[in-house]
């Protein structure tokens, strides 16, 4: 690996992999993977991709083995609380996928009425740092039992009274006779970077990539919306468009009282918005996806 290539760490296989690869793809990067499948080379830009266990990503990025990485905010913050890096990796931006919550869950038959119920109890978790921090913020003293996996079975095995685990749909908790009772931490995929300054060549690659990442992020929910509308409804319609900047207003040939309005909406456009626009006099409303965007 050359010094002048930007090294990106992503999860090899797991819940962050598809989102991470998809982001790189949307940035126009194709990765040719090495035979060991642990290393990939990007064809379009001087970038190398390292495919790792997610738990190793904060360390690889903090310790110069990689320049940037994609990891769950939960794993990053837990790693930060362990305080093992001289200069930890820095957060760059949230990436909007792999959303989940670290939640406190108790047996379904608990009549849970607040964190104080956990006083003196044993809580099994793979996230002892985040769990202890939350317990402290609640003023509760409980015993935290560290488990690397299968946390949800701890109460049944009498290893713990409750658990603090990652929840997405809640089906795993439910299948194990547990119910979520409090949110400890909200998480999603996070882009992190090495804290030290890059060489000028690397900084240039990083800047170019970030420009694309920001473009992908801002076009994710963005839509291009077009409609015809009465000229006197322009102000009301503009106000109604979600997250739109000044729209383009065009003359409609042969209809002096009407105009065409075109706008980029930065937030999702739902059916109720279209219905409201219609009530304001809009017709022939079209909502189109935006593939790429650059400010
Ligand atoms: O092998 P490697 O170490 O790389 O992967 P891993 O098994 O440690 O992690 P992985 O791939 O399971 O998760 C990677 C990251 O995805 C996590 O750190 C979170 O940031 C995020 N994420 C999003 C999740 C979930 N959703 C999720 N549902 N991580 C784990 N889960 C597990 C959870 O632990 C529980 O066992 O899924 C189960 C609950 O799911 P539901 O849908 O039943 O609630
Ligand atoms: Zn892991």
For the largest beta-sheet, the strand count, sense and barrel status come to: 7 strands, mixed
Total number of helical segments? 8
Number of domains: 3
Can you tell me the overall shape? flat
Q: Which class best fits the helix and strand makeup? A: alpha+beta
Notes on the protein architecture:
The protein has 295 residues and is an alpha+beta fold. It folds into three domains: 6-98 and 189-219, D-Maltodextrin-Binding Protein, domain 2; 100-186, Periplasmic binding protein-like II (D-Maltodextrin-Binding Protein, domain 2); 223-289, Alpha-Beta Plaits (2-Layer Sandwich), CATH 3.30.70. Helices cover 26% and strands 32% of the residues. It has helices at 17-26, 57-62, 73-82, 128-137, 171-175, 200-219, 234-240, 271-279, and strands at residues 6-11, 31-33, 39-42, 47-52, 68-72, 90-94, 100-107, 122-125, 143-146, 162-167, 178-187, 189-193, 223-230, 248-251, 258-265, 283-289. Strands 2-3-4-1-5-12-6 form a seven-stranded mixed beta sheet. A hairpin with a 6-residue loop joins strand 14 (248-251) and strand 15 (258-265). The longest helix has 20 residues, at 200-219. The radius of gyration is 24 Å and the shape is flat. The two termini are 32 Å apart. 32% of the residues are buried. Phosphoribosyl ATP binds at residues 11, 14-16, 53-55, 72, 74-75, 98, 100, 165-172, 187.
């Amino acid at each position: 690996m050359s010094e002048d290539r930007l090294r990106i760490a992503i999860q090899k296989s797991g819940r962050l992999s598809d989102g991470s690869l998809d982001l790189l793809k949307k940035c126009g990067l194709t990765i040719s993977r090495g035979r060991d499948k642990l290393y990939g080379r990007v064809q379009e830009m001087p970038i190398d991709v390292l495919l790792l266990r997610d738990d190793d990503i904060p360390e690889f990025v903090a310790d110069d083995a990689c320049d940037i990485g994609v990891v769950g905010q939960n794993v990053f913050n837990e790693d930060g609380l362990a305080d093992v890096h001289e200069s930890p990796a820095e957060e760059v931006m949230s990436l909007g996928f792999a959303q989940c919550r670290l939640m406190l869950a108790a047996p379904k038959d608990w009549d849970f009425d607040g964190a104080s119920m956990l006083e003196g109890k044993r809580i099994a978790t793979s996230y002892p740092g985040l769990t202890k921090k939350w317990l402290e913020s609640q003023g509760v003293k409980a015993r935290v039992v560290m488990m690397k996996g299968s946390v949800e079975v701890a109460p049944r095995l009498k290893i713990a009274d409750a658990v603090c685990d990652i929840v997405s749909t809640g089906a795993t908790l439910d299948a194990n006779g547990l119910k979520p009772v409090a949110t400890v931490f909200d998480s999603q995929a996070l882009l992190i970077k090495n804290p030290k300054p890059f060489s000028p060549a690397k900084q240039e690659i990083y800047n170019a990539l970030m420009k694309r990442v920001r473009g992908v992020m801002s076009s994710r929910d963005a839509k291009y919306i077009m409609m015809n509308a009465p000229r006197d409804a322009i102000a009301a319609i503009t106000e109604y468009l979600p997250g739109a900047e000044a729209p383009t207003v065009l003359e409609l040939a042969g209809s002096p009282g009407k105009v065409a309005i075109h706008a980029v909406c930065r937030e999702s456009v739902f059916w109720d918005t279209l219905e409201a626009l219609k009530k304001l006099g809009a017709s022939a409303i079209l909502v189109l996806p935006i593939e790429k965007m650059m400010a």
